[in-house]
Every structure is written in structure tokens, then in C-alpha cells.
Design a protein that fits this description.
With 271 residues, the chain is an alpha/beta fold. The protein folds into 2 domains: 215 residues, Rossmann fold (3-Layer(aba) Sandwich); 36 residues, no CATH class. It has 10 helices and 7 strands. The protein has a 7-stranded parallel sheet with strand order 3-2-1-4-5-6-7, with helices on both faces. The longest helix has 29 residues. This is NAD(P)-dependent dehydrogenase, short-chain alcohol dehydrogenase family. GO terms for molecular function: oxidoreductase activity, acting on the CH-OH group of donors, NAD or NADP as acceptor. Belongs to the short-chain dehydrogenases/reductases (SDR) family.
Length: 271
């Protein structure tokens, strides 16, 4: 399928590893010029270099998307290097502190204030800041794609993930509102909703690490029962299961898809 992304400039937040890295590489393979954002500069540069080594165009633009000044600066850097932004993928969504902790999250009543603030700042304000920074480019071009990565926690709620569930639900509401505001500008706004994803950013030994299998990880074997597709495939979702959906939504093939939250979670939830 020809997606015709050649020359389009895409900004991907949290692009330094896992799902974000796969999205950056898939968009580049389809011809897009990619601005790789990550909180950690070395990660962003590594992915940008991967794309350049493969013959694509990419620039690293690290920054903290929870800070509006940082967002404006990273967008300006990417725009100066590659041109006006046509595609935004809001992928960053898990704080480094939460990822490093791993294990069982606390109940809502035991969640520290700072952890709740970090979750909302990254998912809600980070997404808002990025959208607000790039939408003028899209409106001026009369073409744009905003694709946010959310979680099934935002559609059905998850115990011990109350703040995260609420933040991801907010992204879905924001998406619908922006889709209504900017349809006239030929800008589509959608959400791709994920369940558990196996990738290299998860510590080895955890159920969702890239090296886990139902045979060597008892928890993973149990988790597969919650995912209809996973039971058949014998694995959880991988980054490349997500990146293809994002690339499709970024293309003209999806010109009439807007304001939607599309599950790529193997049937974990079917709202």
C-alpha cells in the first residue's frame, strides 16, 4: 500500500526507544522526514542516526514536553532543520520514574501527589503543548495528522492506574475536540490505543520485556489469556504492531478517519 508520506515532516515524542522508535523508523521508511524527540538526548540521536544510516532524513530534538518553553524550542529546532511539521505523534506517556520503579503500582489513595502530577503533566499537558505548537503549521499547509498513543486504561479504567487511566482518557477527549475544530483545515486527529507491549525499554525478566516468552515467564503466560490475538500468536504486542497503524493514520488513505480511538491491543478491550 502506497502511503505517500514522502517529504512530510513528522515529530514523534518519546521516540528514543520502544514504540516511539518503531514509529520513527516506519514513518521514515515511508518517506517522511522525522524529528525524533526524547527526554534523553542520546536516545533521540541514536534513533535519528539509525534513520540516516538507512538513507532517510532525521534530526534529534530532545526536550521535556511537560515544559511549554521546551516544547516550543524543540519544535522550532525541528522546523528549522526539516521544515513545517505535518505529522505529530504524541507517544511519550510513561514517566522515567514510574518505568524505573516497575512492579505493582500503588492504589490511588496511596499514590504520592508528585507521581499524580507527573502523570498528568506528561500525558495531558505534554500532549496539549505539542498539539498547540504544531497545529499552526498544519493549518497553514491545509493538511495535518495528529496521532496520540493512549492505553486501554483510558477506555476501560485499570485498578492501581487511576491517575494514568484518567490522563489517557483526557487524551481521547482532547482528540475528539481537536478533530471537530480542525476538520475544516484537512487535519485529522486520532488515538491509537495499546495494551501491554513487549519492547527493549522494559527490563529483562519482566513480563513485557522483549525476551519474555510464555515458556520462560509464568506471568506472561497468564497475561496472554486477556488478549484474544495474543492467545493465537503466543506473544504480546510488539512495537511494529503499532507503528504500521500509526503510519496508515498519517497517510491520505486515512483522510476520512478522524476523532477516533482505535484499539491495537489484540482485543484486550472492545468498547
Amino acid at each position: 500500500m502506497e502511503l505517500n508520506l514522502k517529504g512530510k515532516v513528522a515529530l514523534v515524542t518519546g521516540g528514543g526507544q520502544g514504540v516511539g522508535r518503531a514509529i520513527c523508523k516506519e514513518l521514515a521508511a515511508e518517506g517522511a522526514k522525522v524529528i525524533v524527540n526524547d527526554l534523553f538526548p542520546e536516545r533521540a540521536e541514536a534513533v535519528a542516526q539509525e534513520i540516516r544510516d538507512a538513507g532517510g532524513e532525521a534530526v534529534a530534538s530532545p526536550g521535556d514536553i511537560t515544559q511549554v518553553e521546551s516544547v516550543n524550542a524543540l519544535v522550532a529546532k525541528g522546523r528549522e532543520a526539516l521544515g513545517p511539521i505535518a505529522i505529530l505523534v504524541n507517544n511519550a506517556g510513561v514517566t522515567p520514574e514510574r518505568r524505573a520503579k516497575g512492579g505493582m503500582p500503588p492504589l490511588f489513595v496511596d499514590t504520592p501527589d508528585r507521581e499524580m502530577h507527573q502523570t498528568v503533566e506528561l500525558n495531558v499537558f505534554g500532549t496539549m503543548y505539542c498539539c498547540r505548537a504544531v497545529l499552526p503549521d498544519m493549518v497553514a499547509q491545509k493538511w495535518g495528522r495528529v496521532i496520540s498513543i493512549a492505553s486501554e486504561a483510558g477506555r476501560i479504567g485499570e485498578a492501581r492506574l487511576a491517575a494514568y487511566s484518567g490522563a489517557k482518557a483526557a487524551i481521547i477527549g482532547l482528540t475528539k475536540a481537536l478533530a471537530k475544530e480542525h476538520g475544516r483545515d484537512r487535519v485529522t486527529v486520532n488515538v491509537v490505543v495499546l495494551g501491554a507491549v513487549s519492547h527493549e525499554g522494559i527490563a529483562p525478566g519482566q513480563a513485557t520485556s522483549a525476551d519474555a516468552t510464555p515458556e520462560n515467564n509464568e506471568r506472561l503466560a497468564k497475561m496472554l489469556n486477556a488478549y484474544p490475538s495474543a492467545k493465537g500468536l503466543g506473544r504480546l504486542s510488539r512495537p511494529e504492531d503499532v507503528s504500521g497503524v500509526v503510519a496508515f493514520l498519517a497517510s491520505d488513505r486515512a483522510a476520512f478517519v478522524t476523532g477516533q480511538h482505535i484499539g491495537a491491543s489484540g482485543g484486550y478491550a472492545m468498547p
